[in-house]
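Per reviewer request, we include the raw input and output of the structure prediction for the construct analysed in the revised manuscript.
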Amino acid sequence: MSSYAVPALYAVAVWWFSTGLIILLDHLPRRTFPWSMAGASLVLAAALWAVRASAGDASEAGAYTAFTAALLVWGWQEISYYMGFVSGPAPRACPPGTRGFDRFRAAAAASLWHELAIVAGAVAILLLTWDAPNRFALWTYLILWGMNLSARLNMFLGVRNLNAEFLPDHLSYLGCYLTKKPMNLLFPVSVSLATIVVALVGRIALADDLPAFELVGFTILTTLTALATLEHWFLMLPLPSAALWNWSLPARPKPTSLVITAPEPAEIGHRDAA
């Protein structure tokens, strides 16, 4: 069992710490953002190099490297978006009273460049791992992309827990694209499909006579998908999920300007950033 425990614990630790670090950086004063973005871009370059270097390494170390590198590439996507460097052609709140498809179009316009950057990242990793024995970087990135997109669509359609404390002040306009509802039709589909993926990938990881390289890689992918599925449940279940990253949130009172009238979009009042 220890052969599964180590990669699983590694995936949990890196997921937890990297998520908290991004939250921490996103809540720093805005004057720090150019420095954070510059550092993240250097890390991105190193991560893409590591993706290429690990693509031909069908060893346990290669699997760990591929996963970590892909997570760092994804981290750049998150930092560039939440710091406002890569957003969309119209990064602003939707006009009052906007509903239906018009609201979806406004949401797309607020983050279109971010979505295209994610696609570009996927293409880059695909090319760097093309026809190579180690493609765990690609699978990691695709899982992160798919589960992130699913979570954002669910929050757009309506969930119980919006976790507004994770949203930096300078992105308060995104509140109009979040909806508080007890359930939406996409959520059961999302968690069901994700659970099926966890089962299928986990079955591969548990196969007999699996090479150590694949055992590590598929165990990490199983754990990552399970964690992303758990994050989906955090959107609906009455659990204090924010407590997992309290260390990364600024020490300030809980926002009192969050006004939610279910099932309408949430309105998150803007506060001047430091």
